[in-house]
TrEMBL record, chain A:
Involved in heme d1 biosynthesis. Catalyzes the decarboxylation of siroheme into didecarboxysiroheme. This is siroheme decarboxylase. Pathway: Porphyrin-containing compound metabolism. Belongs to the Ahb/Nir family.
UniProtKB/TrEMBL annotation, chain B:
Belongs to the Ahb/Nir family. This is siroheme decarboxylase. It comes from Atopomonas hussainii. Its EC number is 4.1.1.111. Residues 15-59 form the Siroheme decarboxylase NirL-like HTH domain.
């Protein structure tokens, strides 16, 4: 198998999960008919290029604590300033500007719901408005085959890779 | 779903989470590495991961791709107002679509926020994002009263996953919520 096909196969399969057995990479190498060393070196290449953010456990955070998706409607001229204040709050761990009247969207996490309420109250004070509080009620199962056909295309096009790099901050 | 047929040591699990949530080292036997750090046997690590998975605390141990680096620079949070009694079935259908990375039911907040179904889309262009949204709208049909799509213009903070490099991944947007 050439390196590019191996990359796509590994991304595709490992995205769905490593087997929880001794030597998981050797097990995957056997399945793909390559050596364990090739699997590890290919994954290292993907990690170095930034295509893999990490290999590791994906925990169900909902069981480990509480979280909510919150939003604020900020005057465009004040967005940067308020966003910086919100990002600085230790309970905030994702913060996105989005094109909408509600233009600042962030995730608030805490050990329990009281911790979330307290963080939302802090943010209400610094933003001068009560954030929308939209905790998850149900999560629908996602087919993890997401995007990988396209990913293969992106990986196979060096010009596109350069373009992506150029867009990165 | 969380039948506790195989209880695990919560304190050990907490240490494992702290140690591994930022990622595992890329070595042939990552369980042996975890075992050494936690001062338990490799078999205990595997048994703990299996027990956590059975009880729903661990979804999987996996390679987490950075969709942004794969060229998916456009991220749209689509939001839909669907009848509560159909929301579960419709959410399951949206989650099956290939470009949807997250799909959640959330409360409305009337009058300012009428939407209860959220589906995150990823695309390489704004036009592609609009097409994907239209596919979702066609699937929902008259079950959806109104909808919107909030395109992300900037990622301002992302520390939830404690990735080792300062890369950003739109694919994980609002994953923890």
């Amino acid at each position: 198998m050439d390196r590019h096909s191996l990359m796509c196969q590994l991304l595709d399969r490992f995205q769905k999960g490593l087997p929880l057995c001794a030597k998981p990479y050797a097990a995957m190498a056997d399945e793909l008919g390559v050596s364990e060393a090739e699997v590890l070196s290919c994954l290292a290449g993907l990690a170095d290029s930034g295509v893999l953010s990490r290999i590791g456990p994906v925990f169900e955070h909902r069981r480990a604590g509480a979280s909510t998706l919150a939003a604020l409607a900020i005057a465009p001229a004040e967005l940067d300033q308020v966003a910086a204040l919100v990002s600085a709050h230790p309970a905030v761990n994702h913060n996105y500007a989005r094109e909408h009247r509600y233009n600042l969207w962030f995730v608030v996490t805490g050990c329990d719901r009281a911790a979330i309420d307290s963080a939302l109250a802090d943010i209400a004070t610094l933003a001068g408005q009560t954030p929308l509080d939209l905790p998850m009620l149900e999560s629908f199962h996602i087919d993890l085959a997401f995007a990988l056909d396209h990913a293969a295309i992106a990986l196979s096009q060096p010009s596109h890779r350069a373009e992506v790099r150029a867009c990165l901050p | 779903m969380s039948s506790s047929t195989c209880p695990y040591d919560a304190a050990l699990a907490e240490r494992l989470v702290a140690l591994s949530e930022g990622g595992l080292p890329l070595v042939a036997n990552p369980w042996a590495w975890l075992a050494e750090q936690l001062k338990v046997s490799e078999e205990q690590v595997i048994a703990l991961l299996q027990a956590m998975q059975q009880q729903g605390a661990l979804r999987r141990v996996a390679a987490v791709p950075n969709h942004y680096r794969l060229g998916y620079l456009f991220n749209g949070m689509t939001v839909w107002d669907v009848a509560d009694e159909h929301a579960h079935a419709l959410g399951e259908q949206l989650a099956q679509l290939p470009n949807v990375s997250h799909c959640y039911l959330r409360p409305r907040h009337l009058p300012q926020w009428p939407y209860n179904l959220f589906a995150m889309l990823h695309a390489k262009s704004r036009a592609e994002l609009d097409n994907q949204r239209a596919e979702l709208a066609a699937l929902l049909g008259p079950a959806c009263q109104r909808s919107d799509m909030l395109v992300s213009s900037r990622i301002l903070k992302k520390t939830g996953l404690r990735t080792r490099r300062p890369a950003t991944s739109e694919g994980d947007s609002h994953a923890a919520s």
